[in-house]
Amino acid sequence: MATYKLAVIIENQSKDGDFLLHTQTPPPKFDDKEYDSYLDPDLWDLPSAELTPLDQTRVPIRAGGDIDLRLFDVDSALEKVLEQVGCGSGEKWKWDFRKYVEEASFGPGPPVNTAFVVVKMAPDGRSFPDFCMWMCFESCMKWLLDAEPGSGRIGPLVVVGYLNDLKQAPKWKMPPTLRFQEYPPGVVVAPMGSRTLKPFTTTNLVVFAPGHDAVGDLGAVECIATGEALILDPGCCSKYHKELEQVIASLPRKLIVFVTHHHHDHVDGLSVVQKFNPDAILLAHENTMRRIGKGDWSRSYTPVSGGEVISIGGRKLNVISALGHTDGHMGLYDLKTHSLIVGDHCVGQGSAVLDSKSGGNMSDYFETTYRFLDIAPSVLIPMHGRLNLWPKNMLCGYLKNRRHREASILKAIEGGAQTLFDITSRAYADVDKKLWIPASSNVKLHVEHLAQQNKLPPEFSMQKYLQSCGVWFYLQWLWAYLGPKKVAGVTMAGIAASSVLYKSL
């Protein structure tokens, strides 16, 4: 069930076209000198507040998909918003409804749907705090499309609720049944159902079709591929291939397809692209292509390894080496909007699983994380879950989590754990046992990383540890997860199924 938000467009009665933005509250600091040295720039967006239904038992959405604001406590939400911008409590303001936007189902939590209303205000004689600023359409678009890295940023509410309605409509359209988010301008993110791992159920299809926003800023740069549109990771399952077909049909024929890595939930729609646009150019790392079946893509491809430049409608995209999740994992950076597509290096919620069966490597993962921090993007776009508006904070959180896990793994080994199961069960004691199988993939890579750093205690037997990484681990996991009475009824077919699940990570 969705939750709701009220976003307020405060228009300046004294200066036509101006509206009020305020800085968003950043995530808490880590209380760590290294991590807290990475600061995300200010994020400016429309003021907003939670919108609470007056009656939790009634559905506040009409049959046509419109919101009925009479069923919400709008006055309380509006009062909170106006307090955010320094207006005294108790003031009454007339508002007009502008639009209602349903968030795409990024998951794993419920979508946050937003009602946008307009309040007109005469700022003459009124003093606003420093964290508020009047802006116009042109200045916002300049910040979004021409800002320098590290400068102030414009948030998604003002883009989705206001700016996208004012800018020129794109020549192509997404299928009406497919919910998506366009943020920043020219970057469309649409979660589509896929064969991914829980808690997620979708993979984000990312579409670059900049159109009128693009300018010829490439200069003498040599491009590995040139097109009018680009899609990343068409990984939806067969149930959603019809919608993917409609997306492909609406895009320009000069299409680039970029695959971050080979997992099924990122390539299951490649055959649709190949069928309905056989002239599309596929870009992928050679290690990724070795694992993609002919049934998904039988035509030639252009290999990338990081450092290449792609031109999409005159817009420059840099290919970023993002090894770690797999040995062919790639990212993509849009220099115009400072958007960084990170594949499965990060996910919208929780931590990422590295694939030890496909060249996943913890040293590479740390190196990629620092590379992303050096890029200093304005927004991170993962292939699962929502966009992240605090990229440096998120990346530092991943570093902290990985280092914490590695320390707990080393502690388990120093405490006598010798097998993969013993190490996993101790280091991930705070995690549901059903997740220990994917967690064991990360444990393997952490043990390798510790060995590379010569941190493993001398009494630790690598031979004994490696012997415990096969069927023996699954048997111990089944015993712990199901209990001794149920283990006796588990067939080897069930064990094989667990192995298949593990290999697909």
From TrEMBL:
Residues 215-384 form the Metallo-beta-lactamase domain. PANTHER family: ENDORIBONUCLEASE LACTB2. InterPro entries: LACTB2_WH, Metallo-B-lactamas, RibonucZ/Hydroxyglut_hydro, Sec-metab_biosynth-thioest, WH-like_DNA-bd_sf. This is Metallo-beta-lactamase domain-containing protein. SUPFAM superfamilies: Metallo-hydrolase/oxidoreductase. GO terms for cellular component: plastid.
